[in-house]
Design goal:
The complex is a heterodimer of chains A (342) and B (271). Chain A has 342 residues and is of the alpha+beta class. In chain A, strands 2, 3, 4, 5, 6, 7, 8, 11, 12, 13, 14 and 15 form a twelve-stranded mixed beta sheet that branches. In chain A, helix 2 runs antiparallel to helix 5, helix 7 runs antiparallel to helix 9 and helix 9 runs antiparallel to helix 10. Chain A is built from eleven helices and 15 strands. Chain A folds into two domains: 188 residues, no CATH class; 148 residues, no CATH class. Chain B is α+β, with helices and mostly antiparallel strands and 271 residues long. Chain B is built from five helices and 14 strands. In chain B, the strands form three sheets. In chain B, strands 5-6-2-1-8 form a five-stranded mixed beta sheet, covered by helices on one side. In chain B, strands 4-3-7-10-9 form a five-stranded antiparallel beta sheet. The longest helix of chain B has 14 residues. The radius of gyration of chain B is 25 Å and the shape is elongated. The interface between A and B is large, with 36 and 45 residues.
Chain lengths: 342, 271
């Protein structure tokens, strides 16, 4: 069911608020992009005063800060860095420009819609201060660089982005996306932050024949993510149907679905990751729990040698399709460990 | 939609919880106690990592079991007592034989955080089965802790050791009971060359017959680990080369294991 929300701010104002014009354009080589992302981050740092700079920059090897992300609101799991609500308008724009440079346009749009969804939650669910767009934090681990390892962290309720950049390499693992409400309306426009993931998953499960479904569908209920926030470094035994048991068309559907997470990152990074997933496709598993009718609440998991993706509707008092948690991991390269060996 | 309340839950606490946390109630776990268990099967032990998240409507009930003196603080003794309570409700069997759990770590959030339905209690138990025979085994966990309000997750962790291979997992519908079938093949005595199978980082076997004697061995991907400086007067230590390898029992010698089953091991080779 769509939450019909009348907000005082218009979508256009909202877009301006988050600096939508700062989208990285085109598909430049990652070397060029690395310089642009670093320049954007340096621009953000230049907009801050000394005290703010001291709060926003951490050592690249700061393990405590690295793990300080969650699906939970900031009132419960305290983040560090700078809170958006404490920044001036130009500083907020500069912070969002860093994300716009590091992410793909559709990835950045997804982030904006998740944040806006939390603003909707704040306005519809009461006056608690732990929701809303002001409650997102930004931090940098290491100094922005086109060659040396550094990280951008951005997150709050239902969002935990960990973007590690090492020269021409980059990864989003581990990161969390979520949505509540998962469908909402602003000024007559329906927004679904995780809508593409949902639709593509049902398309994939719908493409399986009876024998394939028997393999893919787990015979038990899944009430949450298995490897959600706080489960760094852990991997589980894969289950479901293996990529090698899918048809060529189904494999493309699986890749397209996984691309909803890998594609959050800058296109150059996303392409390299997609090439890797394609190479490992035969060893990649797809598992499903729940009904297969489109629009129902169902859990799914994609697990391969270098990727773990989970999607879990939350049965927490209301329609579970309106409250979704997801996780994206790379068991071989969390926080860019493959390149930076922290 | 709110799931039907269990018969053991009374309406009043739920109503009070909803009134106390109007937004948290709909944003986060409500009338469920999520108990997520990850089971790591290792050659010398099993580890059960359990995350416990009480929903806002059941948090007081769980807290009453933890904060026994009601002072709104969770003392070390109270934490230990709750861990013991949980332990009693976990029935673990290895090949149909009951095994003892030992608490290895625990962490508790503040009671105030638990009441919001957002706090997570973390506990880790271990089982040391003693000498485990090579071959197939089954580890079963039955979680009987607060079943009227609980939902469960049960999963086997991907083994870190090449001597353990998960062959299957089974759960009941709500995952309160799970079974992990695994194949255990301990490495043979490393001093015995029979059965030792070494894979280099590029996936080529060190003891694999070479197609051509002219082909250079694949040493390029070896990582040389610096050794400690030799004491004055002592003979220089040989260089130790760390290569990715695993040991395979003789009867398994015909199969290659997947790359992600590799584990690092040490092999000394004179250079």
């Amino acid at each position: 069911m769509i939450n019909k929300i009348i907000l005082t701010s218009t979508l256009a104002l909202f877009s301006g608020f988050f600096g939508l014009n700062g989208f990285a354009q085109g598909n430049p080589a990652m070397g060029k992009a690395a310089k642009e992302i670093a320049a954007s981050a340096n621009g953000f740092l230049a907009s801050l005063d000394d005290a703010q700079r001291a709060k926003v920059v951490f050592n690249f090897k700061d393990q405590a800060q690295r793990k300080r992300w969650s699906n939970l609101p900031t009132g419960i799991v305290r983040r560090a860095g700078l809170r958006l609500g404490d920044l001036t308008r130009p500083q907020r724009d500069a912070a969002m420009a860093v994300l716009a440079a590091a992410l793909s346009p559709r990835g950045y749009e997804k982030v904006l819609q998740i944040v806006q969804g939390d603003e909707v939650l704040k306005q519809t669910e009461g006056g608690r201060l732990m929701f809303g767009r002001d409650e997102y934090y930004v931090s940098l681990l290491g100094q922005p660089s086109a060659s040396q390892p550094w990280m951008i962290q951005f997150g709050g309720h239902h969002l935990g982005l960990n973007i590690t950049l090492v020269g021409e390499q980059g990864t989003l693992a581990p990161s969390h996306t979520g949505a509540q409400p998962a469908v909402y309306e602003i000024e007559g426009k329906t927004l679904r932050p995780l809508g593409r993931e949902t639709d593509k998953a049902f398309a994939l499960i719908g493409s399986l024949d009876a024998a394939q479904r028997k393999q893919a569908i787990l015979g038990f209920q899944m009430r949450d993510l298995v490897l959600g926030p706080g489960r760094d470094g852990q991997t589980i035994q894969p289950e479901g149907i293996k990529g090698s048991a899918l048809t060529e068309t189904q494999r493309e559907l699986l890749l397209d679905l996984a691309g909803e997470w890998t594609g959050i990152m800058h296109e150059a990074v996303a392409k390299a990751k997609m090439d890797e997933l394609r190479k490992n496709l035969a060893e990649t598993w797809f598992a499903w729990s729940g009904p297969t009718e489109k629009g129902s609440a169902a859990y799914f998991r994609i697990q391969g040698p270098t990727v773990i993706i989970e999607y879990a509707p939350q049965r927490l008092g209301r329609d579970p399709t309106q409250h979704i948690h997801t996780i994206y991991r790379d068991p071989t390269n969390e926080y860019g460990s493959k390149w930076s060996n922290p | 939609m709110v799931e039907p309340m269990t018969t053991t839950m009374r309406p009043l606490p739920l109503l009070l919880a909803l009134l106390a946390f109007p937004s948290a109630a709909f944003a986060h776990r409500l009338d469920e106690y999520l108990q997520a268990t990850l089971v790591a099967v290792e050659p010398g032990a099993f580890r059960l990592q359990i995350n416990l998240t009480p929903g806002v409507a059941v948090a007081e009930r769980v807290l009453a079991l933890i904060d026994r003196d009601g002072d709104d603080l969770i003392s070390t003794n109270e934490a230990a007592a709750y861990a013991e309570l949980l332990k009693r409700d976990l029935k673990v069997r290895l090949d149909q034989h009951h095994v003892e759990l030992k608490l290895t770590s625990s962490s508790f959030p503040e009671p105030a955080d638990l009441r919001t339905g957002l706090g997570i209690i973390q506990m880790e138990f271990s089982v040391t089965p003693g000498v485990l025979a090579a071959g197939l085994h089954k580890l079963t966990l039955e979680n009987r802790h607060l079943p009227a309000v609980s939902v469960y997750l049960f999963n086997a962790a991907q083994p870190r050791s090449a001597s353990v291979r998960i062959t299957g997992q089974r759960r009941n519908q709500d995952q309160s009971t799970g079974e992990i079938a695994f194949d255990f093949h301990p490495p043979p005595n490393p001093s015995m060359p029979v059965g030792m199978d070494i894979l280099h980082a590029n996936g080529v076997r060190a003891n694999q017959p070479r197609a051509s004697e002219e082909r250079a061995p694949p040493w390029e991907n070896r990582r040389v680990i610096p050794t400690r400086p030799a004491r004055a007067g002592a003979a220089p230590l040989p260089k130790v080369t760390l290569i990715e390898c695993h040991l395979i029992a003789p009867h398994q010698h015909s199969e290659f294991r997947p790359r992600n089953d590799l584990r690092p091991c040490r092999a000394q080779e004179p250079r």
